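Two quick folds needed for the group meeting slides. Do the first one here.
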Amino acid sequence: MFQGSAIGRVAVFVDGDNVPAPHATAILTAAREWGEPHILRTYGQAQNLTPWQKVPGFRFFCAGMEKNGADLLLAIDAIELALTDPPETFVIVSSDRDFRHLAIRLRERR
């Protein structure tokens, strides 16, 4: 993990299909190393809704049942935020490499 300094707003996007809700505390702790989390979003299919709804502060976005629906929705929302009201830091949490191109593009926009 990179060590940052608390310098600004942080947007946290979680792939809720691959990262279980019990990791929320660790996610927030890591995000706070970069600044103050002001957007906390989790994306996933309906069966993952209940555990994430119980986590204070996180908003869950149901992506339907399509394959990779959560990944697409997360990527669209992150790019939209980057274009309209970019935070100083994006934190993308997943257990796979599906978001590497998104991370590269967000970094290029800085």
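Then this one, please, same format:
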Amino acid sequence: MKIIVIGAVAAGTKAAAKIKRELGNEAEVLVITRERDISYAGCGLPYYIGGVIEDRSELLQNTPESFAGLTGVTMRCG
């Protein structure tokens, strides 16, 4: 079974990981996002824009490579 998930912020990565966890090798899961970053703390963006958080990497929870390695999900970003 092939499954495509569009979007890789909180809901997309959570859905992809859950599908892969429940279906295992039965599912080939591909996540597609136009963003280069995934799993970022969107609620922290105003703090980054306002200069309270200076390094935007502090908002990142995961990288596409580490997420793919942890879950077995294929990522297409950017």
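Slide caption for protein two: The longest helix spans residues 10-23.
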